[in-house]
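Co-fold these.
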Amino acid sequence: MPLIEKMNETSGFERLIIEGANPAIRITQSAVWFRDALYIGTGRRPIKYGGNQKNAGLAARLRERVGDDDGARDTDGAQLIAFDPEARKFEVRYESPIVLYKDGNQRARDRSIRAACVAQLPRDDGPTLYLGAGGLEFNSVILRSEDGINFEEGKKPGFGIDGDAPSIRSIVSWRDRLVSTPIGRNHGENGLYDDNESAFPIVFETDDPISGDWRAISEPGFGDPDNIGVNELVIFQDRVYAGTTNIRRGYQIWYTEGEGAPPYKWKCLLKDGAYRGPSNQFAICSKVFDDHLYMGSALPRLGPRGHQNYGPIAPELIRIAPDNSWELVVGMHRLTPDGYKAPVSGCGPGFDNPLAQAFWRSTVHDGELWVACSNWTWMPSFLRNRSDISQEHLAELQALVDADDPRYFSIYRTRDGIEWSPVTTRGFGLSTTAKAGVRELLSTPAGVFVSMAQPNNAGVAGGMELFWQRCGG
Amino acid sequence: MTYPVFLLAPPRSFTTVVTAMLGNHSKMFGMAETNLFAGDSLGDLLRLYNRTGRLAHGLLRSVAELGFGGQSEEDIEAVWTWLNDNQDMLTAEIFDGLRNWAGDRALLDKSPIHVTSISNLKRIGHAVEDARFIHMTRHPLAVFESAVRLREAIRGAGMAQAFAGDLTPDSAWLKPNMTILDFLRTIPPERQIRIKGEDLMAEPRLYLPQICEWLKLDTSKDDVEDMLHPERSPFAVIGPSNARFGNDPSFMKNPELREFTDTLPPVTEINREVYGVDFGRDILHHAQLFGY
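Predicted complex below.
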């Protein structure tokens, strides 16, 4: 029986609308607990002029899709919004500066705050908030705050790279330093489809991000030109693990002990999308739980190069033990160089939901691992221009999409990685607008927070939803 | 408990040698190309055989081997008589009979004709409700070039009507793979597995036991060793004069396992200038998803 039919859904969630979000915000891209508050990094939809995309057709479609009446302005940028659960109060703590673009117009600099981390580095007096802010025309900027109110910016945007390095997806704290990596291109050929790759798929470290002195600790793409991005960084057993996006053969997972001088020696733990191939193109959703490193997958939308029109292809979840052996947790059984792998959960890709697109975020809450999904339904590209499948098959896919509710999102939980049950498969029954999926999921001393990505920005969709289950709920 | 296994792949995808290898496991029996589910009844098959006589040889040899323990001319003649006398029998019933004769060995079938039509595959699905399916893949260029060579060889042998239709990468690779995928979406995941043929051929010691593990077959060291000798299959040789074929003729001439090295580039690097062929969008994407 598919897991989703085993209804044991969790109640006790409350729906909030994030206050203070400007009309352009359409996605929550980072979440971190700092100084007794939840800090939410947001992202705005592409601004009206379509950015610097060289793909004029894509830029025009974006302008056409967004329209002129959503209330969003070019001066609306990414925001950092704090939620005080005691006071039940939202407060905007950071707004993007307005800067002069190359075309002579003044616009918001920051498109997204996509990475967040609390760390204590040598110059910090205590736990300190570090953020990665990405831009549409300019390179990424590191933000630092000791109080969550005042922010200083790091020197040398984009890791000091003399090139196109506009965003950061992952920052982790390791020993006495931060480790991070650039992502995205502002000046590539594929517009938004370049969001998930980098011209510099390199891992960097620094013990002082404000100085801008980042050191490269890996070679580009770990020596494989098909590793077009380092999507995920996570610390496990005091090692840095990196999950790549590999467009041709599927993701790779590399790790380093960090010995000697950088660039460190890295070893490839797993490749070829854990031997599922490019159906597991993207490593994502990493979390250390119960002495294992869990890693999810996704099939990103990559325009004509991508396979998103040949699905739907649902994600998988693996886990890595301290000795670097690995198991398939959720996914399709298969033969591999490491032996026959069958999912220990008994669940197929997507927890047997073919419309799951990615395992996007996970958290550890109350002794359980929670894993949250994004969904194909809001943009079922696999229904378009299908000359490869039968009409009967296409009709079945259409019926599958029609039967799904775009408000619904799914989260699953486990105590051991083997037995899973739904937290929700129906958006807690509370969600009111179309969802791309759960974009942030965080366990905090105040409870669990769940925030969203939406196909339309807040100005059109009536606000950005935030779901909260209080501690003890 | 053992389950029948159907190896599904476009023609020219290693299926003959893999069937011979797996079939040497003590708990399996790899059949010749029975083409059994090309019709609902024996009468349907006999009408098919009247058009292309060779298509009967695999069933004749398999029934003879399982039923009589041999493939002499007399054995084959007896099977022909029996088939003609039982034209109303359903092919599903024939399969059940073969299964009974195989005893505790799982039947393994790789008939190329099965993947030419979704109807044939659905027929298998209805008739053999506990069947397992192995979807075997091969690089589209290798499949296409092998099909071209085979067509030229057969036509050179005087069978000008063979492969009368267009032979293209789409017809040789895409269509059969899409037919297989169309069928397998109706089969529960635990009853199917996809295998990249090149991986299996390059490292049979690594992958054959894994297939057996999936099939829940206890596999001894002797089983592994036996599986590395496809030439030991009862169908690894030319048959008797009244049923010479029923398997890939080139395999029957050289059935021993040879070292295999995968040398073809990724499909994205295949182009007309260098390789004489371009692949359409659908082949490119599906082949990449298969690992090419």
